[in-house]
Every structure is written in C-alpha cells, then in structure tokens.
UniProtKB/TrEMBL annotation:
<feature type="binding site">
    <location>
        <position position="183"/>
    </location>
    <ligand>
        <name>NAD(+)</name>
    </ligand>
</feature>
<comment type="similarity">
    <text>Belongs to the L-aspartate dehydrogenase family.</text>
</comment>
<feature type="active site">
    <location>
        <position position="213"/>
    </location>
</feature>
<dbReference type="Pfam" id="PF03447">
    <property type="entry name" value="NAD_binding_3"/>
</dbReference>
<dbReference type="InterPro" id="IPR005106">
    <property type="entry name" value="Asp/hSer_DH_NAD-bd"/>
</dbReference>
<protein>
    <recommendedName>
        <fullName>L-aspartate dehydrogenase</fullName>
        <ecNumber>1.4.1.21</ecNumber>
    </recommendedName>
</protein>
<dbReference type="InterPro" id="IPR036291">
    <property type="entry name" value="NAD(P)-bd_dom_sf"/>
</dbReference>
<dbReference type="InterPro" id="IPR011182">
    <property type="entry name" value="L-Asp_DH"/>
</dbReference>
<feature type="domain" description="Aspartate dehydrogenase">
    <location>
        <begin position="162"/>
        <end position="247"/>
    </location>
</feature>
<comment type="function">
    <text>Specifically catalyzes the NAD or NADP-dependent dehydrogenation of L-aspartate to iminoaspartate.</text>
</comment>
<keyword id="KW-0662">Pyridine nucleotide biosynthesis</keyword>
<feature type="domain" description="Aspartate/homoserine dehydrogenase NAD-binding">
    <location>
        <begin position="7"/>
        <end position="112"/>
    </location>
</feature>
<keyword id="KW-0521">NADP</keyword>
<keyword id="KW-0520">NAD</keyword>
<dbReference type="InterPro" id="IPR020626">
    <property type="entry name" value="Asp_DH_prok"/>
</dbReference>
<feature type="binding site">
    <location>
        <position position="117"/>
    </location>
    <ligand>
        <name>NAD(+)</name>
    </ligand>
</feature>
<dbReference type="GO" id="GO:0033735">
    <property type="term" value="F:aspartate dehydrogenase [NAD(P)+] activity"/>
</dbReference>
Amino acid sequence: MKIALIGHGAIAGYVAANLPANSRLVGAICRPGREAAARSALSAVPALSVADLPERPDLLVDCAGHAGLRAHGPSALTAGIEVLSVSVGALADTGFCAELEAAARAGGTRLCLASGAFGALDALSAAAMGQGLAVTYTGRKPPQGWRGSRAEEVLDLEALAGPVTHFSGTAREAAQAYPKNANVAAAVALAGAGLDATRAELIADPGVTANIHEIAAEGSFGRFRFQIEGLPLPGNPRSSALTALSLLAALRQRHAAIRI
Ligand SMILES: NC(=O)C1=CN([C@@H]2O[C@H](COP(=O)(O)OP(=O)(O)OC[C@H]3O[C@@H](n4cnc5c(N)ncnc54)[C@H](O)[C@@H]3O)[C@@H](O)[C@H]2O)C=CC1
Ligand SMILES: O=C([O-])CC(=O)C(=O)O
C-alpha cells in the first residue's frame, strides 16, 4: 500500500516511523518553505500538493490538522484517492463538509475519520440508531496542553491554582474554536447525537498529567460513561499518542479479511 502523509509533525512522525510492513511512504505534503523540515523529520520526499507527489498514493493520511485537510483533502478525493484524517473538527464547517462529500462522490472514494485520541465511537453510533440520545463530552488537559489555543485568551495557563472550565458550548462551537484540541468533541458528536446537540466542556487542570477525555451518554439504549487518560506524544503535549496509534490501526484494518 502506497501511503502519503499531510504534515510532518508529532503525529506524522510517529506514523511514518511505525508503518505496517505492507505499506510504503511515497511522500509527505508540507507547506511551502517547509520542504527541508519535512524531509528531515520523516525521511520522505516532500511535496506541496497531491499532484506534486512522486507517486500516486493509495491512501493520503492527513496528520496536519484542519488547514492541511482544507488545502489537500478535496483535490485528493476528487482524484479518487482515499483520505484518512485526524482533522475531524474541520467538518464542523458545513460548507467544507459538503465540499468534502461532493469531492469523495466525484472521485468514487471516501474520507475516513480516525477515532483519534478517543474511543467508544462504535457504541455511540449504535446508540444513535435508537431514540433520545443525549451526550456530554468533557476534555481535560494539563495547562501546557492548551498552549496555542483560545484558552490563553481567557486564562493565564501558568498561574492556575485548580481546574478551570474555559469553554462550554456545543461540539460544533468547540471544534471551530479549538482546531488543535477539540477534534475528539467533533468525533463524539459525528458518531452520536450530532454537532449541535452534543454538549462540550473544555478544562485546563494543573492537577492532571494526561489528556483526559470523557463522555456521558444516555438514550433509549440505556446509558454509559467512558473515559480515556491519554498520554501525550513526546513531540506535542496537545496531542495524545492514541491518535497516531488510531491511524496505524486504521491502516492495518484497511486490508484485513476480518474487521472489528
Ligand atoms: N482526532 C483527534 O483525536 C486528534 C486530532 N489532532 C489533530 O492533528 C493535528 C496535528 O497534530 P500534531 O501532529 O500533534 O501537530 P504538530 O503541530 O506536531 O504537526 C502539524 C504538522 O502539520 C503541518 N501543517 C500545518 N498546516 C499544513 C498544511 N496546510 N499543509 C501541510 N502541512 C501542514 C505542520 O507544518 C506540522 O508539520 C492537530 O492540529 C489536530 O487538529 C490532534 C490530536 C487528536
Ligand atoms: O490529542 C488529544 O488528546 C485530543 C485533541 O487534541 C483533539 O481532540 O484535537
């Protein structure tokens, strides 16, 4: 399987270093001027677009975040190249979501969304087939996990004495306001009750060292709670290691004769 990546950061680095044996990296799409950085981070041929890749990939894996999916997702899909993405929150923009869907249909392929830093999405999808599903998502990270996010505009991350909720609203609002931190909120919402009906709370907590994601779901199926304490990737305290592992799991599943 020929794989190309978008991005050369913490998630891309982990994926590139741990590709399954049946896969080969054909290139990595980066921003203009970042070619040398991409080459040295991934030992991959850098490219500025899907068309610029040295070989046509079977799968384009977006590890770059919302901007990367925006820039390269539609062209890959239109060209019939399947895309696997961690940038789930980008679909909170209804216009962009429609563009991706139209591109996938035009190319006869699909966009797959990684389960990312969270899980239990299968149970949420099943629960959504019943009635009255209500879901609340809470994302809790140590202060350094919120650096570079809108949290910095409302609180002094260095001076927190205890946990502070810096966002409360819908999953759609969270995904759009926190593109680097609330992809899990979007994934939970897309799998379950929807982007506008899923409640999201984001908390900076100096008392934790892990990225803690939790949902409480209730409906005609019954109820469940699910929590993950995810350790961050060494290269980026914002991103949980499970995100990179979820991409590797999706690669393995892609050719499995029996899928779970
Ligand atoms: N679905 C999920 O559960 C999760 C999703 N994420 C998403 O993954 C993104 C990447 O995470 P990390 O690897 O930790 O971040 P990072 O900051 O280490 O790496 C991001 C990489 O993407 C590149 N990039 C940015 N814009 C680009 C563009 N337009 N074209 C090509 N490359 C571009 C950067 O140069 C950098 O190499 C996050 O910003 C977040 O949106 C992160 C964690 C969990
Ligand atoms: O990696 C994490 O823990 C979650 C995250 O950043 C996101 O949801 O975008």
